[in-house]
Structure formats: C-alpha cells, structure tokens
Amino acid sequence: MKLKIPPLVVTFIFALFMYLLATYMPVGYFDFFGRNYLMYLLFFLALLIGVVTLFQFFGSKTSIDPLVPSKASKLVTGGLYQYSRNPMYLALLLLLLTWGLYLGNAFNTLLAAGFVYYMNTYQIIPEEEALTNIFGKEYQKYCVMVRRWF
C-alpha cells in the first residue's frame, strides 16, 4: 500500500484546518439550541465506537495497523463490523464533527466531507484491495453485505 500518512495524523490535520477556518473565516458562525448536547453525544459515540472496535480487533488477535493491511490475519465481521466496514474511521469522522460543532463554523462540514473523500480515496480503497487479496471471496461477500461507512 502506498499510503504514508496514518489515519490519526490525517484526522489531526483536518482538525487543524477546521480550527484555522473557524478562526480566520469571518462568516459561517452558527449556534442552535442543543448544540452542546449534540456535541457531547457525538463525542461519546466516537469514543464508544473507537474503543469497542479496538477491543474487537485485539480479541480477534489481528493487526490494527492501517498502514500495512497485509498484516491482517483474521477478517473481523462481527459486532460493529456487521454494520460498518470502517467503524474506526467512522469514529474519527464523529470526532471531527464534534470538533466542528465545538468551533461553531458551518463551513467545517465541508472539511469533514473532505476527510471522508480523502479516507475513501487514499486509505479505504487501498485497504479493500489488500484485504481482497488476503481474504478473497469471503471479503468480497462481506463488502456486498455491509456498507463502507454506516
């Protein structure tokens, strides 16, 4: 796989861009009733999804290294992975959406969409190709049954 930037670093880069956008863009501020509640809910969901999926990988005794998917020794399809093929990345997206709500700039949703595009193009598609090479038809069947994000 040609990817050189770990997904956590990509998330921090997008979070930095979100901060810069919210700080230096003179328009786009928003507030609404329940914004803080939604922010806390998304943060809680992100943490819950992230922790549960890490435990699923550790329990399956397979690699969680996103830069070398060829290290995967077992296909994890149960638990949260029966609803999303990429719940760890979904958790990162939820963290970015939480950050965007905290910053209160509507244009940050565009950066969150950019994160999804970047992850699909440079992380998920190469991972899917590697996992297809490792697990073959089992993984292809899984891809048909389960959505990429949610």
From TrEMBL:
Gene3D superfamilies noted in UniProt: 1.20.120.1630
Molecular function terms from GO: methyltransferase activity
Subcellular location: Endomembrane system
InterPro entries registered for this protein in UniProt: Phopholipid_MeTrfase (IPR007318)
Keyword presence, Methyltransferase: yes
GO CC list: endomembrane system
Transmembrane intervals: 6-25, 37-58, 89-118
Residue runs in coiled coils: none
Membrane-topology annotation of the record: Multi-pass membrane protein
Assigned keywords, A-Z: Membrane, Methyltransferase, Transferase, Transmembrane, Transmembrane helix
Top-rank taxon, per record: Bacteria
Alphabetized Pfam families for the sequence: PEMT
Gene Ontology terms describing biological process: methylation
Protein name in UniProt: Protein-S-isoprenylcysteine O-methyltransferase Ste14
Organism: Arenibacter echinorum
